[in-house]
Each structure stands twice: as structure tokens, then as C-alpha cells.
Amino acid sequence: MTPGETTARTTPAGHAERLTDQQVEQAVRMLSMLAEPTRLRLLWALRDDELGVTALAEAAGCTPTAASQHLSKLRLVGLVQQRADGRARLYRLSGGHVLRLVAEALAQAEHTVAGLPHHG
């Protein structure tokens, strides 16, 4: 190793231990999107399949206009993806990381609300 060179330590999952400013900023943007009830419900509704705005609005208990506005925000931060199916727009989660993030947040909430012990 040359002077000034450092080795990057990694976590067990293989991610760099030292976070970049860009990683932190993006994570904060994504997590802030989860801090809104309708958006969290929309993401949970997408856990198994892609859905259109009308079905998502029904699942989240909001109007299609409100669902569309929330989905636009979720798309901007990369939590959902959209594809055209004729005139309809279908939405899906942007991958397994998003699903696990939402599922873990809701599992943590369930443990807290129900007074269940937390996993190690």
C-alpha cells in the first residue's frame, strides 16, 4: 500500500462501510418518502404485482389524482417504476431492496405497536 492509500472496509453484505454524501442524501430522500401514510400504503400495495393508478388509489384509500401525485414523487426518488400498457400506466416497486425496506419498516412498527420483542 502506498502512503495515503486506504483500504475500503466492507460490511458483511459487501457494501462499503464508509458512506458517501451522495448515498446518504439519496437514502434520506427515499426514507422521507416513506414518512407519509398514503405513500407507504401505495408501496405496500405494490409488494406482489404491478398495478394501475385506480387500483392503487383504492388500496391506499385515496383518490386516483392523489395516488398519481404520490406515485410521481416515489418515481422521482427511484422507489417505483412506471410502464405504459396502452393508455394505462402500471407501477411496480423498483426492486427487492425497496420491498425489503418497506417490509422491515412495517415489521418494526408491528413489533412496537404490539409490544413484541425485537429480533437481534
| DSSP summary: helix tally | 5
CATH overall fold name: Arc Repressor Mutant, subunit A
The average pLDDT value, as a whole number, equals: 90
Q: Specify the oligomeric state.
A: single chain
Domain count, please report it. 1
The CATH class name reads: Mainly Alpha
Q: How is the biggest beta sheet arranged?
A: 3 strands, antiparallel
Q: How do the strands line up in the largest sheet?
A: 1-3-2
User: How many β-strand runs?
Assistant: 3
Organism: Nocardia aurantia
Pfam families: HTH_20 (PF12840)
GO molecular function: DNA binding; DNA-binding transcription factor activity
Protein name: HTH-type transcriptional regulator KmtR
Structural features, described:
- The chain is mainly alpha-helical.
- The chain has a single domain, classed as Winged helix-like DNA-binding domain superfamily/Winged helix DNA-binding domain (Arc Repressor Mutant, subunit A).
- Helix content is about 50%, strand content about 10%.
- β2 and β3 form a beta hairpin.
- The N and C termini lie far apart (about 35 Å).
- One of its GO terms (molecular function) is DNA binding.
- Keywords: DNA-binding, Transcription, Transcription regulation.
